[in-house]
Specification:
Radius of gyration: 35 Å
Low-confidence stretches: 252-256
Shape: rod-shaped
Number of helices: 3
Largest sheet: 5 strands, antiparallel
Oligomer: single chain
Helix content: under 10%
Length: 256
């Protein structure tokens, strides 16, 4: 296509995630231009970037002369510049995070009754600390007749045999792990389908070494450039109660 001489501020160089660009600027008569444009990825030589590839164009009216237009032709240093500018179908990203939350001492895998309970003995029968007092995990040996675990004195007739070893502590900080899964797709319905997985058991494509049950706690759909972005929040929920949570349908699982 025939082009007039470039404007004085042409060419203009720039760059972005996609790579480096050069924009050539022209002032053209409407009659002479006729809408002619290079084919996408057509090449030309640039004095600074070498071979460049046509990517986009902009036409602006000349506000001073109705018979003229301004034409900008933008080239990049890569033929896949547009693809690198935005996300593609099936692009995805997994981001792990962890924090803590309070759990009752009784939920600790190392829990002992003596941590937060006193052991009392019926003064008619027991006045010596039994051997199992420091290792008991349940009340099985203290049925309330001879021994009793209690936070406070059961009353008259009971002797304090062993005081709790962790007074004032009823909870502990336990770790919780979550994974944020982000993916992109041009079809909105495919992204929106993830909404059906909320509050269901579903394992993310990456678990970062945590094996067990995962629960979907939230899904969000947004527009992101040339694609729709889905954000799925997973929480490691081992073990999850199958009476409360059902598994997500198999067809809703993303490919790993």
């Amino acid at each position: 296509m025939a082009l007039p001489s470039q404007l004085r501020d042409s060419p203009e160089y720039g760059g972005s995630r996609g790579g480096e660009t050069v924009t050539y600027k022209y002032r053209h008569t409407k009659a002479a231009w006729k809408g002619d444009l290079p084919e996408y990825n057509a090449t030309r030589m640039d004095g600074n970037l070498g071979t460049v590839y046509f990517q986009s164009w902009v036409v602006r009216p000349d506000e001073n002369e109705d018979d003229y237009i301004y034409l900008d032709l933008t080239y990049s240093d890569s033929p896949d510049y547009i693809g690198r500018q935005g996300k593609e179908d099936n692009d995805d990203l997994y981001l792990p995070s962890s924090t803590t939350f309070e759990k009752p001492l009784e939920k600790s895998p190392n829990y002992l009754m003596c941590w937060n309970y006193n052991l009392y003995g019926n003064e008619e029968y027991e006045k010596v600390v039994p051997g199992w007092a420091s290792s008991a995990k349940t009340e099985v040996n203290a049925d309330g007749s001879h021994y009793k675990w209690a936070k406070e004195s059961p009353g008259d007739g009971w002797l304090l045999l062993k005081a709790r070893t962790k007074p004032g502590i009823e909870n502990f900080l336990a770790p919780t792990v979550s994974v944020r899964y982000m993916f992109w797709h041009a079809t909105k319905a495919i992204v929106e389908a993830k909404l059906q997985t909320v509050a269901k058991l579903k394992t993310p494509g990456e678990t970062f070494g945590y094996s067990g049950d995962w629960l979907v706690t939230g899904v969000q759909v947004d527009e992101d450039g040339n694609r729709y972005r889905g954000t799925v929040e997973y929480l490691f929920a081992e073990p999850a109660d199958p009476d409360l949570y059902e598994a997500a349908a198999e067809e809703e699982e993303e490919e790993e």
